[in-house]
Each structure stands twice: as C-alpha cells, then as structure tokens.
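Person: Please work through this fold.
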Amino acid sequence: MENFTDFNLSNQILKSIEEKDFESPTEIQKKAIPPIMEGKDVIAGSATGSGKTLAFAAGLVENVDPSRNKIQGLVLAPTRELAKQVSRMVDEFSKHHEYDIATIHGGVPYEPQYRALKKAKVVVATPGRLLDLIGKGRIDLSNVNTFVLDEADRMLDMGFIEDVEEIMRETPEDKQTILTSATIRSEVMKLADRYMQEPVKTFAEKKVDPNKLEQVYYDIPGHLKLSLLVHLLREEETDLSMVFCNTRRTVEFVEKNLKNQGIAAQAIHGGFSQNQRDRAMEKFDRGNIDVLVCTDVAARGLDIDNISHIYNYDIPNDSKQYMHRIGRTARAGEEGKAINILAKDQHEDFRKVLRDNNVSVDKAETPYVNKINLK
C-alpha cells in the first residue's frame, strides 16, 4: 500500500491527511493501519517520529460515533508534553469529524478539564490525573471502544505499570487495544499478554536515507571536544540542533558551557521534574532555544520538527540508540546531518555502532578550533 487512499479510511480523515501534506505512508503506517482498521489489537514498535500517531489516530478517530455523548476513545501517554503533542495531532486528524477531544494532565486546574470532559468523545491523558478523576467519579470509561497505550516502554520506565493496569480495568474487556513502543521489551510483552487479544505485532526498522542524511565523525582529543562542538554550532548552517550526552552530569556541563559561549542551549534529562520539562519545551517551542542538550531517556517521546543537526557529544553505550538519535533529523524529505565527536575512549563504542547498525559514516577533517575556557 503506497497511498493513504489504499487504506479503508473515511473521506474526512483523508482530507485531514492531505491538508497536512503527507504524501505517502511511512513504514509503520503501512504495517499498522490495515489491522487497526480491521479492529484488531495491535502492537506497533517504532521510534519517535516514525508516524505511529497517525497510525493509531486513524482507528481512534474512525471508531467514534459523534451521536453518542460518551467517551469512546482513550489515549494514555507517559508525560504532560507528550499528551499535549498527541492531543494536537489527534485533533488535527479528526478536525472534519467535528467532535471534541479533552486533554487531561496534571499541573493545571481541574475545572477546565471537568468542562472539557462533558463534551469529549476522545480523551488523551497522563496516568496520574486520570486516576484522580476516576477516584473522584468525574470520568466514565465504560464506553471506551479504542484504547491506546502510547510509549509503553517509557510508561514502564517511569513506574506507571500499576496505574496503567488500574486504568485499563476501568475500560471494557472487548475494546480494541493499540500499544506503541520504541522498544519491545519482555515487560511490554507481558503487559500485552495480560490485556490484549491475539495482537498483531508490527515493527518498523529505522532506516537512513543516505541521500538525505549526511553522517560524519570527528576524531579529536578529549579536552577539545566541547571546543569543537562550539565551533561546529557556530559554523554549521542549522535550524534546530539536538546534542546527545550519556549522563545527566555531562548534559549539565555541556549546557552551562554553551550558554557561557553565548549559545542558546537548554538542558533536559531524566532528573528533571515534569514542570522543568514543560518549561524547557515551552522555550524550545517559542523559538528561544537553538540547541537542546539531552540524554536518550529525556528525549524519549519528544517529537520535534525542523531538527537539522544531531550531535553525538557522547557515543551511545547501547548501539541501537544511535538510530533513534539520528532518526530525529532528515524527516519528511528534508536534509539533515548527524555529527559524531569522538575522543579516544569512544572508538570501540563507535565501531560497535557501525557494525550493529550497518551504517557508513565518513571521517571529517578536524578544523582548527580555539580552546574555550571550561566552567
């Protein structure tokens, strides 16, 4: 299936897709939309940015009966920012169906959410606030026909498994369940075994188009790594950049020194509270930040457009994370660049990345850089 018209989608959702200028389905959409539209339970394994939101939104949106004043669709997301992202996208795909979507998460007053729930046919929520509403008797999930557990592996990493199961027990047993996850681990499969009925398993490999994504590496002494990063951030023609580090300490070190050099950088790592994450992403969304410095865990679930450059300040310890990182650029036919900064102690990790992912990365000539004063 090479076109969205090949799927059993309504004219309303096809019109929404056309208005988004999506030309052809992604790999995960080709694999997941057909069984979703057949009403089957589906496990969709693919990275952030691969198009899985449209895949589950297609079934979610089409399954709603606008004449019934009941909540019929539920999406559970691990974080506030992801819930808001998903809600915006589902709202865009359902715009011609003319029904309301409620976004439920903590950090905001209850009353506006109570009002939104009175008219909502679809709810996108984080576990904590949703459980609060269930406990207060302010939400009825007994008519849900489509349940989506988005970013299931991250949900488990954040310790939400008991909350997720409690929420699932509030929904009908005969509903359609769709589970998305960047990685399909044994814990994810155990959850699927308990709550899904003969799920169709779909997986999309992260493939790199060498015509769109340039990959290079620099070999440089460890004490000049940050100096080279500053040089490249100033010299490369960039839109938005992401700098990946392996530890929280390195993230904070890099952010502080980039700011000291006058570069608009923002850190985000697993030690951030939800409010800190929200404030960081608001700065990024407003265009106040040019560079996001992050760990792999913190970047999970963030779907950010217009990333032109990915910098691996550290080579990932898990070689498969490399593909998740570089897959954030060169999207939707745009060009991108992935730059790896290698000190002597990371050559073995880099060789493993090349071997395990079967990718070719060119060595770049290291420019002369002025050594910056580190803070």
